[in-house]
Every structure is written in C-alpha cells, then in structure tokens.
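re: ur question from earlier - yeah i can do the single chain one, its not a big deal. heres the input i used so u can compare w yours
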Amino acid sequence: MKIAKISLMVLGAAGATAPVCQDGEPALASGVQEQQSAQESADADKLYDLVKQARADLRQMRVAAGLGTAAAAPEADPGESHERGEGAGEHGGREGRAEGDERGGGEHGQSGEGGGEDEGAYVPKMTRQNELFANGARLVLAFDPKTQVFAGSVTNTTARTLTQVRVEVHLDNGTELGPTKRIDVAPGQTVPVELGAFGNEFNAWVSHPEAGVEEGHGGGGEEGAEEGGEEGAEGAGEHGGGEGGGEEAGEHGGGEGTRPRGAAYRPVYNQLQILRGEMHAFAIDLAARSSRNDR
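and the output i got, formated as tokens:
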C-alpha cells in the first residue's frame, strides 16, 4: 500500500543519516565536533524537507480518496479555553485556573528578551491554550485527538523581530515534544505550529514558545545541554513528568526514549510524529468509509 511505502521510505532515510551514539566512544576534537554538527544540521534540514513532502503527498492521497486535505478536528470548547493576557504572574500568571488544573507548575518564571522558558501549570488534555508570553509571543495551541497533533500558531506581538522562535510541549507522562524548527518571526507575523504526540498516553500538558539563544544552551540547539546527559535519558526531569514517562508513552512508541539525542534531528522527529498521526487518521477514515459502503 502506498501509505506504508511512504512511512518506510521516510523512516529508512532518517535511520540512514541519523548519528549513532555509543557509550565509551572517545570524545571528538572540538574542530571535528563543529564540522560534524554542521553536517548533522545540513542532513537534518534535508530530512525535514523530505518528511514535509511526504506529508504533502499524504494530503494529495486524501483528496484522491475523497476524504479532504486533512482529518476533521474537533471544535474547541469555549469553556475549556484558557487565555492569558499581559502582566502575567511570576510563574506564568496562571492563578485563574481551577485547582484541578494546577499540575507541575513551571519553575522558570518569566524570561527576559532572551526568550527562555516561560512555563506554568499543566492543563487538561483538551484545553485550548491562548497565551501571551513574556517574550512577546502569543501562542495558540490545541490537541487534535484524531491526528494526535498539537496544532495552532505563534504571533509576534512586539515591534521587533523575534529570532529563532520554536515551541515545545511537555506531557505529564514525562515526554517532551519538539521543539519545532527555529524560525524568525517578524513584528505582527503569525506562523503555524504543529507538534506530534503520536503514541503518547497523557492527561495534561504545558507548552511555551522560546526565542533567541538562551544562556547555557548555545547556538546549536536548546537541547544541547541534554545530549549524553542524564536529563535526556530520563526524560521527565524538571518539567513535572514521571520517571517512567518513556515506558508509559504508549504501545506505538513516541515517548522520551525514542526521541533523538541530537538536537538537530528533533524538529525532523517532530515532523515524523505528525506524519505518523496523519497516516493513522487516514487509515481510520478509510476504514470508516469502507464500513459505510458495506452497509
């Protein structure tokens, strides 16, 4: 089946170019590391474009099958929408939430112009987020259970360009989704955001947009400090997830344990997770149509 071929081709290409890390290997010289990092970034960009093309092919397949370009997403429940304006509190200004929503509140607080993490309390799974963060980015995000994708947008509400904007989602099972690919967002510009959660079982989540290069992370990626470290292996860490998050992520895979250690490949992995969710939704829609036709 063509849809299976798409999956195998994309995953095969990813496996062929992703770096293999083994414990006990000698450390590379700094010059070699920089060269390797630049090559990995170039390879990751190629893979990213390949997966995006596979998603475009899948949309065409949906149209050819008479199913439309995307799986129908549920309407957001206004009662479950959480909005936050300017003047947020120290930990994200989430005092207005009900007590049941206060899970694993962030410890990073507001960020300065550097645009670091501005987290807060976890929200229930189907909550629609609409928040203005301290770095001037407004994030609108909601989970679509059919494709298992968080979809929304980031808007730059400032008068300056927000550089290297990316978004992450932390699930209460210990899994971190993303980050999305870094992009410069002009004043007033709105860009789409998607984060794939395929294979994860969770009940609550928290998300935040980042911009610029945070202190201690460097220009190679916000996850550089985790590579090879305990936090990258254990997953949950400071963001409120359980220690066993990778094992509890679901039968299809997609937990913290399957996430690439190399920061350059994480936006690609995010796109692969989105593709897996869209393929799963396509299969369900095809089965539903076949069932209706058999009646």
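Strands lie at 81-84, 123-124, 128-132, 137-144, 149-156, 162-171, 176-177, 183-185, 190-196, 204-210. not sure if urs matches, ping me
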